[in-house]
Design brief:
Distance between the termini: 103 Å
Radius of gyration: 38 Å
Strand content: under 5%
Order of helices and strands: HHHHH
Helix content: over 70%
Structural class: mainly alpha
Number of strands: 0
Shape: elongated
Largest sheet: none
C-alpha cells in the first residue's frame, strides 16, 4: 500500500471534528458578542445616569462644584512638574516679587494670630474677673505669646 494513501473514513472523522469545533467557537463568539453588547449598554446607561446626577449637582450647588473644580485644578498644577520654560519665565524678578508677597502674607497671618490670641486672653481674663475666678499661672504655663518668645516665621 502507498504511504500517502489515507482512509476516507479518517478524513471524514477529522472534518466532522473540525466542524464541531468551528460550531462551538461560533457559539462562544456569539455569546461573547452578546455579553459585550450588554456590557456596553449597561455602561451607556450608567454614564447617562451619572451625567444627569452631575448636572443635577451642578444645578443644586454651582459654587461647591466650582470650588471643587478649582481645587482639582490646583492639585493637578502641583502634581505636574514645572517645565524649563516656566522656570525661566517665573524666575528672576517675578519669583522675587512672589516670594516677597508670600512673606508679607505670612507676617500678616502671624500678627493677626497674635492679636486674636491676645484679644481672646483679655476677654477670658475679663470674664474671669466678672465671675470671681483667678487666672494665675506658673511661669512654666505662661503663653509664649505673652513674653514675646514666639518669633515670626
Amino acid at each position: 500500500m502507498d504511504a500517502e494513501h489515507h482512509d476516507p473514513d479518517d478524513a471524514r472523522g477529522v472534518i466532522g471534528t473540525l466542524r464541531e469545533r468551528v460550531s462551538t467557537l461560533r457559539g462562544a463568539l456569539a455569546n461573547g458578542m452578546s455579553d459585550a453588547g450588554t456590557r456596553v449598554e449597561n455602561a451607556r446607561t450608567q454614564a447617562t445616569t451619572r451625567g444627569r446626577s452631575m448636572a443635577h449637582a451642578v444645578a443644586e450647588n454651582p459654587l461647591g462644584i466650582t470650588l471643587g473644580a478649582m481645587a482639582l485644578g490646583v492639585l493637578a498644577g502641583l502634581i505636574v512638574p514645572i517645565t524649563k520654560l516656566e522656570r525661566e519665565r517665573i524666575g528672576g524678578p517675578v519669583r522675587d516679587a512672589m516670594l516677597a508677597q508670600r512673606q508679607a502674607a505670612v507676617e500678616h497671618a502671624v500678627e493677626t494670630a497674635r492679636e486674636i490670641v491676645h484679644d481672646t486672653l483679655q476677654a477670658a481674663r475679663s470674664s474671669a474677673r466678672v465671675h470671681g475666678v483667678t487666672m494665675e499661672r506658673s511661669d512654666s504655663e505662661k503663653s509664649p505669646f505673652a513674653s514675646g518668645d514666639v518669633k515670626e516665621v
